[in-house]
């Protein structure tokens, strides 16, 4: 992909976390993400399309934009989030374009999962 194709697209997402191992266990368990460690204070994650990072170098739970993850089967995604230790903040609800739910991860970040189904 050329730099022109990347212009104005989300390229990377970074989370300040309290425990990188716990974040890897949560996101790996809930969504199957993979990880590359870059020392004790930084880990890159990959979801198969987008990459980002977990770092312990900043304040945890400082807010930020709502990150939304797509799922073909939203009920299965919600079950995986709960099994991995996430807290459902807003149960599955309809919205224009499909359905979604919001959850908080172990560090208190709120994210959402949506599906066209």
TrEMBL record:
It comes from the Bacteria. InterPro entries: Anthracycline_SecMetBiosynth, Glyas_Bleomycin-R_OHBP_Dase, Glyas_Fos-R_dOase_dom, VOC_core. GO terms for molecular function: lyase activity. It holds the Pfam family Glyoxalase. The keyword Lyase applies. Residues 9-116 form the VOC domain. Keywords: Lyase. PANTHER family: GLYOXALASE FAMILY PROTEIN, GLYOXALASE-RELATED. This is Enzyme related to lactoylglutathione lyase. The lineage of its organism: Bacteria, Pseudomonadati, Pseudomonadota, Alphaproteobacteria, Hyphomicrobiales.
